[in-house]
Specification:
By secondary structure, the protein is of the alpha/beta class. The chain has 5 helices and 10 strands; from the N terminus they run H-E-E-H-E-H-E-E-E-E-H-E-H-E-E. Converts the preformed base xanthine, a product of nucleic acid breakdown, to xanthosine 5'-monophosphate (XMP), so it can be reused for RNA or DNA synthesis. It comes from Bifidobacterium criceti.
Length: 193
């Protein structure tokens, strides 16, 4: 998606350690018009798939997923929580994931009443690096018996291999911008086409 690539070039910041900071429009301040265009792109890619739920992970995926849901007949958005709370009651699906940006492992939790074997799920998230968070969401779907119809990612760091592994495993993965390389010294980003 050229619009997203251009925003990354203009407003993204490359930090040491393969970190791409896009908080001006994606995961701190949200550009809802851009999110809407992203949702339209995913709706075109996944057209004809029987999506009944969109699954994401808190917090950065929630805004993107909610706006994208408007392009999928307003299907419900379920977000996996990263911590237990008193608001989480009843039976739950739980798995552990490692976060590249937070450099730690944490639980991801979805209440069983919101994910079932009848669901056809589109997973949406803001970033894909090594694929650990997505693998956790896939595991939650597998535990529920739900069908993963596809995965929509805003920005994939192609050089970290997570997307390649998911595609090799047979998942329909649509990343709107795939970063081929980043250089923190000169702040440049190149994209895979």
């Amino acid at each position: 998606m050229l619009e997203l690539e251009e925003r990354i070039r203009q407003q993204g910041t490359v930090k040491p350690g393969n970190v791409l900071k896009v908080d001006a429009f994606l995961n701190h301040q949200c550009d809802v018009a851009l999110f809407d265009a992203m949702g339209a792109a995913w709706a075109e890619h996944f057209q004809g798939k029987p999506i009944t739920k969109i699954l994401t992970i808190e917090a950065s995926g929630i805004g993107i997923a909610c706006v994208a849901a408007r392009h999928f007949d307003n299907v419900p958005v379920v977000f996996a929580k990263k911590a237990q709370s008193i608001n989480l009651d009843g039976e739950q699906y739980v798995t552990q994931v490692y976060s590249f940006t937070k450099q730690r492992e944490f639980p991801v939790i979805v209440a069983k009443k919101f994910l079932s074997a009848d669901d056809h799920v589109l997973i949406i998230d803001d970033f894909l690096a090594n694929g650990k968070a997505l693998q956790g969401l896939i595991e939650l779907c597998e535990d529920a018996g739900a069908t993963v119809e596809g995965i929509g990612i805003a920005i994939e760091k192609g050089f970290q291999g997570g997307g390649d592994r998911l595609r090799e495993a047979g998942f329909d993965l649509d990343s709107l911008a795939i970063v081929e390389s980043m250089d923190a010294d000169n702040g440049t980003v190149t994209f895979r086409h």
